[in-house]
Amino acid sequence: MSEKKIGIITAGGDCPGLNAVIRSVVKFAINDCGARAVGFLDGFRGLVLNEYVDLTFDRVSNILSMGGTILGSSNRDNPFAFYYIDDQKEPMDVSDKVVETYERHDLSALICIGGDGTLSMSHEFSKKGLNIVGVPKTIDNDVQGTDQTFGFDSAVSTATFAIDKIRTTAESHHRVMVIELMGRTAGWLTLFSGIASGSDVILIPEIPFSLDIVCEKVVERSVSGKRYSIICVAEGAKVSGQEVILEGKDKRTGVVRLGGIGNLISNEIETRTGIESRTSVLGHMQRGGSPTPYDRVLATRYGSRAAALAMEGVFGVTVCLKGNEIDHFPLEKVANNPRRVPPDSEFVKIARTVSTSFGDY
Ligand code: F6P
Fold first, then answer.
1. Domain housing 165
2. Claim to verify: residue 144 and residue 14 sit in the same structural domain
3. In the annotation, is 140 catalytic?
4. pTM of the prediction?
5. What is the pLDDT of residues 28-54, one digit of tens each?
6. Rounded to an integer, what distance in angstroms lies between the CA atom of residue 24 and that of residue 290?
7. Which of 35, 30, 18, 352 is nearest to 199 (CA)?
8. What is the CATH number of the domain that holds 246?
9. Residue 74: CA atoms inside 13 Å, Cβ hemisphere, count?
10. Do 268 and 235 fall within a single domain?
11. Whose CA is nearest to atom 2 of ligand 1?
12. pLDDT confidence tier of residue 2, bands split at 50, 70 and 90
């Protein structure tokens, strides 16, 4: 039998733990299966353009704790609507080029490490006959079928650390500090960081809020002698009956960038209550840096299971975490179906029991 060869891509917004997955896939494939591995550069773009690097044992040495991805990523590239250059007038369907590259390298499988968008595209390539195994990555934790994506724990840790620091200056200056977090249409990152930092108000996309109620909470705290408040708001949260606030749009893909809700809230609080307020947007800091030990372990588990599935010939799936067990889940159920916080989830309930307001009642 000829030697097996596994392709790997990292696509979509990066997060801590990508290198840990790459390392685990490659070491498992080489050590346990005598296979070879090749990494395509900058997500699907590398498959379109046949840009790659051989992933040897040496190449993946000492990358476990490194943030980012040694393969590069791109969340603007979709092979079904592809732009070779920025000022190209219309996108092109170059998905067949991905298939050609896959065949040229004689891959036994392609491991796609990505979030909701990447795994949806991966499902399309699965339908085109490629042997795909997904690995769920994202700080947003919004991939269907898994209890936790890798990268999420690191982002919660970074955000909590930042909010703890913001709390001390909020207290000194008797201010309301509104902290805006990432997450797109899912509130997991804001919810967990909000609970971990003991925030007074947590606002998430899944629970539309009232500015009146948020202001009442801040005033109530002030009257009871608590002269500062911490409000965590997800970039995708919205005032009841209003639209999500957009910061802009990617010129090429039309994908919207969320942002601005934090400023809206702090301006409204200051105008309505007279209490001085400031906004802090945590931004890409949440995606950067070294993975937490938990994420290093999870990424290593995900990587080796993905490689094992690829070797066993189990395709069209993504690895996932169920309870404390690593399992796999069909890609077709992941595609275009982000996992959001159920408004009656245990996490929301426990936050309410410690007097956190969600701005809804
Ligand atoms: O999906 C990950 C994520 O960090 C979201 O939380 C955020 O909305 C988005 O990516 C930001 O993307 P970009 O880096 O393209 O602005």
1. 155-287
2. yes
3. yes
4. 0.97
5. 999 888 999 999 999 999 999 999 999
6. 16
7. 352
8. 3.40.50.460
9. 19
10. yes
11. 13
12. low
